[in-house]
Amino acid sequence: MSLEVVQALNERAGCRLELVGLIEQGQSGAAYVRWPDGREAVVTTAFAPIELMRQTAEVLADVRRLGIPVPAHEFLFDLGDGTVAVVQERLPGSTVTRPALSTVDAIIAMNERFAGLLANRPDIRPPPLSLGRPGDKTPTDLIERHSPRARRLLDAIRTTGGDRNTDVVGDDLVHVDLTVGNMLFDPEDNISGVIDWNYGVARGDRHYGVVKLLHTLSFAAATPHADLRPTQGAVERVERVLEQCLDPKTLQRYWAHQTLNMLYVSRRWGTDEAFTTYLELGESKLT
To answer: How far apart are the C-alpha atoms of 34 and 259, rounded to whole Å?
Structure first.
């Protein structure tokens, strides 16, 4: 996919990008490229419409001026099939695969810098929660057909639902995919980049992102031979932070949303083992 996107940018948008290398990981992969003037960049595809990605480019430009290490989105191109190509600045640093206390502490501290950043951007929408309600984004039919156990968990998820206007409230910048893999670290273990804004920026409660962080770490910790292997202390630290920052009902709603999304993803594209692990994670906080 990445190679085809680079070719489309060169042939249809005249970008003249030089391919440096492919990153075949994540949902769509990415490509390292070089602009004609020598600047290095990364080509990815977005999971949001181009209007939201234009907003995202604007917001990230403002955030960069505050000294927060997010990438400039240098060029957006609608490929015409619902896919948006993003050419973004290549930030320094590397990812970690064995997150420890210092790793999650750095991520949580970075996320705190997002507080109140969108107070003047009421046009930015909050991330929608999927809680099994009519009209929610994530469908439930594949999950319902799986087993009585899955249906019981769906019932528990639905009990957390409520008024959509109170789903994710606030004026913080929200990274909806706040995960270890979307953080770059320098040799001194400082965060040098907060990357992968390909779902678009959102406005609301920044702790929504920390729940995503906990959900992904918990799944990795429960999955033998996972590429990401967090220490137990790292998972427990994020748990304690959320218990202090969120009331129990809000934490349950965010957890229910993450669980439903990943149950659907694992049924559609994943494995039975992954689905069972997500059932267990959901049950741990919802039943």
So the answer is: 38
pLDDT (tens digit per residue) in 249-261: 999 999 999 999 9
Look up the pTM and report it: 0.96
What is the SS3 string spanning 48-61?
CCHHHHHHHHHHHH
pLDDT confidence of residue 28: 57
The ranges of the chain with pLDDT < 50 are none
In angstroms, the CA 73 to CA 87 distance is: 6
User: CATH: 3.40.640.10, 2.60.40.1120, 3.30.200.20, 3.40.50.800. Which one for 2-89?
Assistant: 3.30.200.20
Domain ranges of the chain: 2-89, 101-286
Q: Cα(first)–Cα(last) distance of the chain, in Å?
A: 40
Give the closest residue to 84 by CA, choosing from 45, 52, 51, 55. 45
Tell me: domain 101-286, CATH 3.90.1200.10, correct? yes
What is the pLDDT at residue 24? 65
**Residue 192 has what pLDDT?**
98
Look at strands 183-185 and 191-194 and give their pairing.
antiparallel
- How far is 167 from 177, CA to CA, in rounded Å? 17
